[in-house]
Design goal:
18% strand, single chain, Rossmann fold, globular, 35% helix, 171 residues, disordered N terminus, 5 helices, alpha/beta, 6-stranded mixed sheet
Length: 171
Amino acid sequence: MKNIPKLLLSLAGACLILAGQVNASTVYLVRHAEKLPDGKDPALSQCGLARAKALADYFSDKALNAVYATPYQRTQQTASPVAAAKQLSVTAYDPREPKQLLTQLSALSQPVLIVGHSNTVPQLVSLLSGIEMAALTEQDYNLLYRVDLADQPSVTLMRQAFICDAQAGKP
């Protein structure tokens, strides 16, 4: 029990070291949009497709150098409208290897978007910023994290204005 504070300090220091290795000035992170309820690799629902379009609209006036998403349908379908609008391709990353993704980001100097999952987005935000993030619930589809990697990393949590009538399945 005595060593827990030391362990936490070590982990926090490791997070800051990892964040210092990322050259991108700003990293946006978002969970994939609403998905269909079945299967191991479900596609987006109608609401999810509409949310992905709304995300592309949000980024229409923002610079992005790259768009990353896990190889699953739901993340690829969330990222694709943004990437297409920016004339970028979606780069797949392994959600089980977050440090490998950070290494990829070290080659970039402009803002990037990362589309992940409820269990990976907070983890990536923490690794980038050194700031511990609360877990996402299965209903959290409208959160967009902005991590600014200046001398003192900061995290801004934004709620997307998009609202979907889930019962009707319509935006």
